[in-house]
Amino acid sequence: MRSTWRVIGPRGQVLTVAAVVASLAVAAAWAPSSTAALATGASIAVLTIAAAVDAVAHRLPNALVATAAVPVIVALTLYWSDDLTRSSAAGVALLGGPLLITHLIAPRGMGFGDVKAGAVLGAALGLLAAPLALLALVLGLLAAATFGLLRRLHTIALGPGLVAGAALALALARLVGVDVVAP
Q: Virtual CA dihedral for 14, 99, 114, 42, nearest 10 degrees?
């Protein structure tokens, strides 16, 4: 982690801190509608740090992905309901499912870390509304593809795109007033 922090340099450090703050701010904007949004924001914040590592090492650290799952598990435990559980599970399926299928078809093209991070992001977004997970996947893939095309890269780290897609999906859904599932 420390080596990643040095490698990304001051510009990358500022960008990472800004992304963490932005994800927490967007989640806080959802808090009046759902206190589970705080868990969503915490998960995205942790995965933002994991995405910074991914951008440098092309690897999403298991410890950070697991840490990002903790707020989701706590929220599911605190606000236990069938609707919330179904919505979170649907989020996992909508975001993590396509990534898993892609990994199974072409394991060298997509790492399993992306699948795990996608599942956590899907569960976190599902705490609010499952369709956010699909929107996050589409936006994340578009962001990653655009970055790769502009930089003319043959391989890209998908983690940063997925996290950016999740934060953007949260922001857009808040602007249009998407109804939430959680209390």
A: 60
Report how many domains make up the chain: 1
Distances (CA, A) of 145 to 1, 42, 100, 152, 159: 25, 26, 18, 10, 12
What is the crossing angle of helices 112-126 and 158-176, to 10°? 10
Q: What is the pTM of this model?
A: 0.92
| Residue 113: domain span | 2-176
Q: What is the DSSP string of 106-121?
A: -TTTS-HHHHHHHHHH
Does residue 63 belong to any structural domain of this protein? yes
Neighbours of 155 (CB within 10 A): 9
- Give 103-144 pLDDT, tens digit per residue: 999 999 899 999 999 999 999 999 999 999 999 999 999 999
Instruction: Tell me, yes or no, whether 181 lies in a domain.
Output: no
Provide the pLDDT confidence category of residue 19 given band limits of 50, 70 and 90.
confident
pLDDT digits (tens, 9 = 90+) for 30-86: 888 888 999 999 999 999 999 999 999 999 999 999 999 999 999 999 988 899 999
Calculate Rg over the CA atoms of the chain: 15
Residue 104: which of 112, 95, 93, 113 has the closest Cα?
112
Shortest CA distance to 183 belongs to which of 33, 73, 77? Answer: 33
Please report whether residue 23 resides in a domain.
Answer: yes
In a domain, 183, yes or no: no
